[in-house]
Amino acid sequence: MKKLLISIVLANLLVACASEKPKEPEAAPAPTPIVEAPAPAPAPAPMVAVDPLNDPASILAKRSVYFPFDVSAVQEADKPVVMAHAKYLSEHADRKVRVEGNADERGSNEYNLALGQRRAESVKKMLVLGGAMASQIETVSYGEEKPVCTEHNEACWSQNRRSDIKYQ
Amino acid sequence: MASQILRGVVGLLLLAQASMASAALSIEIIGAGEHQIPIAIVPFGGDDKLALSINAVIVGDLQRSGLFRMVDPIGKSPHQLADVSYPDWQVRGADALVIGTAALQPNGRIEASFRLLDVVKQAQLIGQSVSANGNQVRAVGHRISDLIYQKLTGDEGVFSTRIAYVNRQGKRKYNLIVADSDGYNEQNVLEQSEPIMSPAWSPDGSHLAYVSFETGHAVVYVQSLYTRQRGVLADFAGSNSAPAWSPDGKHLAVVLTRDGSSEIYLVRPDGSGLRRITFSGSIDTEPNFSPGGQSLLFTSDRGGSPQIYTTLVAGGPEQRLTFGDGNNFSPHYSPDGKGFVYTHFVNGQFFIATQDFQTGQMELLTQGGWEKNPSFAPNGKLILFASEGRGRGILATVSSDGRVQEHMFTQSGDAREPVWGPHL
User: Which of A22, B128, B151, B326 gives B346 a disulfide partner, CB atoms 3.0 to 4.6 angstroms apart?
Assistant: First the structure.
């Protein structure tokens, strides 16, 4: 059982890592093959009450939304992700999230801090729209100060234009 | 002064300082001023090692200004007025000559006596002694450079002033650094694993305001460079950032998101007396006070893209100043208040640009690249900005006419967001 739990946790981690990757730019080559998660033990295993937040197959495993240049509105493609977190938060009033906005480096440091804050706020607005309470959500911005990628190209910038939903 | 007191800190910091200070900074100068004064600087007599160090500082300072051409003194080394034969220097094409002596006094202080001579008129322009603590060789050199520069150009020298910037090494090491105007004599004000942003000098040079993420979000602090004590200036929900001092030092403008969007507020240096200035609902940020203190420049995207605007501190109409292609950021008034310097972003490149209030014309000072965060030297003749070279963030200066550029490569990491400090 313990082994099974560990493998589930591992699988979660693997999928979580994979899902951290941003969408590939349109012109990008074929996506790299996703690492196969270790197969879970065959059914019928005793059922454990799994928090959907920890289910790698759940849409809730996606915690990042991405933005075009100098845009802070949540894009159509990411709306289901944000709404799913909104629903989860509305059903788990004890849970809190921190939404962290980020920007690429094409602007001044201070403008990008403001832009990142606006990206965090726009995710918060949608979470509230979807049923979460404002008191469950903290917004912060890192602007361009904490890039996940530091090269001067769109492949990099697209990863940095991001809001992360982090459960506390 | 600041450096002296900064030195009195814990051993760990001292070590960090020492290692940074000992590392050679590399400097590249590009271009030349239109009218360069040919000047010969004879290595001082007295204590040779000391004299050479002072000499190097003076030569570096004057060259960097772009206003001087160094005439090689080789073969002649007068140290006293009586030893000077003016024809020797006229033949070499020097208009000005600097001679002097430097020695360490029994009380541990450096004393340097120098003369600035007009070779054409065969007359002394300056005869003066400069002294400082034994560990302040560079300060002695900078002071002499200032006196020479002021006498020959008529403008105030800025070689003795200091700069502040953020140095980023990897993803987990951030330093707030104060250094001499030439990038040497680096001293650590703050070192931590979370980002630091937007250093801003108090008008008397005694304090720095800055943004730190050490508590997990952007908070503005004010720190004394003398006592190292610091206080929180603004720590509201969301982001607190972009500190800028009023010229009388009695207020700071800051940008807060506590009421929703990024807006500009005024606050006293102790964090009291908060008052909101802008109400656009868009991003309003990067406030900068006019030299008289009545107006602010700032960046806003209220018109759809980031541009430079101005408003009155007391409240009043807000006016857009930049138009045309591209985005504009980070305005800083020129010391005479007649214009401002800013970052212009167009076609994927950043440029350092100035605009004169009267003409409204943009003038590009650089060729474009990754150039951000410009600020004027207190005499308005040089602009310090963040650039990039050899794949790293570096410090750079450009003369306000765009003719001379200098790149300063710090020891390691990315230098970011430099800002030129005031006269002390």
Answer: B326
What ranges make up the beta strands (E) of B10-161? 26-30, 37-41, 45-46, 68-71, 96-104, 109-118, 123-133
What residues of A are in contact with residue B418 (Cβ under 8 Å)? none
What CA–CA distances, in Å, run from B315 to B9, B234, B288? 43, 22, 15
Series of mean pLDDT values for 10-residue runs along chain B (424 residues): 35 36 59 83 94 94 90 94 95 96 94 96 95 93 97 94 96 95 93 98 98 98 96 97 98 96 96 95 97 98 97 93 96 98 97 97 95 97 94 92 87 93 92
- Cβ separation B257–A117 shorter than 8 A: yes
Question: What string of DSSP letters covers B192-203?
Answer: ESS-EEEEEE-T
Q: Is the dihedral of CA B345, B347, B353, B356 positive or negative?
A: negative
Residue of A118, A139, A145 lying closest to B197 (CB–CB): A145
Identify the closest residue of chain A to B374 by CA–CA distance: A108
Please count the residue pairs, one from chain A and one from chain B, whose beta carbons lie less than 8 angstroms apart.
89
Chain A interface includes B369 (CB < 8 A): no
Q: What is the rounded distance in angstroms from the CA atom of residue B191 to the CA atom of residue B196?
A: 9
Q: Do A141 and B299 touch (CB under 8 A)?
A: no
**Å between B248 CA and nearest CA of chain A:** 24
Question: Which residues in A lie closer than 8 A to residue B171 (C-beta atoms)?
Answer: 146
| Amino acid in position B315 | G
> Which two tokens mark B94?
């020097």
- Does A157 touch chain B if contact means CB atoms closer than 8 Å? no
- Look-up of token digits 């990315």: B414
**H or E segment to which residue B271 belongs:** none
